[in-house]
């Protein structure tokens, strides 16, 4: 009977070691996965912008840039462009008159706010459509916009409007 018990006990001990070893390996793999860092998904913040149609009506110097490092220089160029201002008129239906991309005549466009708080200027419809421009910022008489359509954005760059006559 004693000789019979020894192989069974040995087999149970090996089985326990295998189970415990497998458990420990599983825990180690789990903990290694917890410590691993993957590149975080970039979060593009939607700017909070407060602007009204009435604030847009008037004369503006206009310039554009493609590299963020050119923003300050472009603001100065937009101020200088007040000698030949871009005019944003008051629309008949509560919007403002501005040119859409590649259009020779201005048409009425509207301020539109998306559910994420992003502000757009464009024809009637949902905010953020391809014909819209997104308002990136508006403060101290400087309006910065970028076209939603990637091809148009590439051609025109980031648009900087500086209110003419502003201090």
Brief synopsis:
The chain is α+β, with helices and mostly antiparallel strands and 167 residues long. The chain contains four helices and eight strands; from the N terminus they run H-H-E-H-E-E-E-E-E-E-H-E. The protein has two domains: 1-28; 53-163.
Number of helices: 4
What is the residue-averaged pLDDT?
81
Specify the biggest β-sheet: 8 strands, antiparallel, barrel
What is the general shape? globular
Number of domains: 2
Tell me the span between the first and last alpha carbons. Answer: 104 Å
Poorly predicted sequence stretches spanning 5 or more consecutive residues: 35-44
Number of strands: 8
Order of helices and strands: HHEHEEEEEEHE
Proportion of residues in helical segments: 25-40%
What Rg do the Cα atoms give?
31 Å
Determine the strand fraction and express it as a percent band: 25-35%
- With strands numbered from the N-terminus, the spatial order across the biggest sheet is 1-2-3-4-5-6-7-8
Structural class: alpha+beta
Note down, in words, how this protein is organized.
The chain has 167 residues and is an alpha+beta fold. It folds into 2 domains: 1-28; 53-163. 33% of the residues lie in helices and 28% in strands. The chain has 4 helices and 8 strands. The chain has helices spanning 2-35, 53-56, 71-80, 150-156, and strands at 58-65, 86-90, 96-98, 107-113, 119-122, 133-139, 142-147, 158-163.
